[in-house]
């Protein structure tokens, strides 16, 4: 049975972290909101599920995943649920907790990257908060982005199994998520990210290795990979790339 992924159909956003895990493992899945409404899919199917009062454990917002009778929301929780079946996490409990911790830290930088263009409120347009966005982006590019990427660099450098992966000696969902974060930062802040990546070579090499994985490379070339755009989390406003 195919997994059912529910996320907005025109952006990568937080759903892309789930797509990358499923694609890298070759797992069958249906991207429900991108499907035809005539087949019971599309955005109405997603919003109906969110509003259905019969759902005992309702997700707060997309992304959420349906696996038979199991429904899981929140990016980190979905990946934690999928990883053992997809073989994207080591077997030991200690390693799984460590992988989850790394993923939660990745979720933190994703949230901070989003808030560079919407620092006041998500209900406002970027144009309504440009002054605050510039101030927030200046701090993000000069302090927060380096702090996060230097931490991931240290995690890679200190991995007892080698510097090719964040956890253990094989690909994990944390590697895939770090790849996506770096891709997003390079799109949104090309100049600032280049400065930081020049000082974090292990992170840069991991990005390149993940991009070259056969299934990931095929996905990145396919129509299933939505292009970055100014409706998603990572948005390219040149005036914020400071």
Question: Strand count, sense and closure of the main sheet?
Answer: 4 strands, mixed
Q: Segments where pLDDT lies below 50 for 5+ residues? A: none
Task: Please state the structural category.
Answer: alpha+beta
The sequence of SSEs as H and E is EHEHEEHHHHHHH
**Helical content class:** 40-55%
Per CATH, what is the topology of the largest domain?
Answer: Glutathione S-transferase Yfyf (Class Pi), Chain A, domain 2
Shape verdict = globular
Which value, in Å, is the CA radius of gyration? 18 Å
Organism: Xylophilus ampelinus
Domain GST N-terminal: 1-90
Pfam families: GST_C_3
Keywords: Transferase
Question: Could you walk me through the main structural features you see in this protein, from its secondary elements to its overall organization?
Answer:
This protein is of the alpha+beta class and about 240 residues long. The protein has two domains: about 5-85, Glutaredoxin (3-Layer(aba) Sandwich); about 95-220, Glutathione S-transferase Yfyf (Class Pi), Chain A, domain 2. Helix content is about 55%, strand content about 5%. It has helices spanning about 15-25, 40-50, 75-85, 95-115, 130-160, 175-190, 190-195, 200-210, 215-220; strands at about 5, 30, 65, 70-75. A four-stranded mixed beta sheet has the order 2-1-3-4, covered by helices on one side. Helix 5 (about 130-160) runs parallel beside helix 7 (about 190-195). The longest helix is centred in the middle third of the chain and has 29 residues, at about 130-160. The termini are far apart.
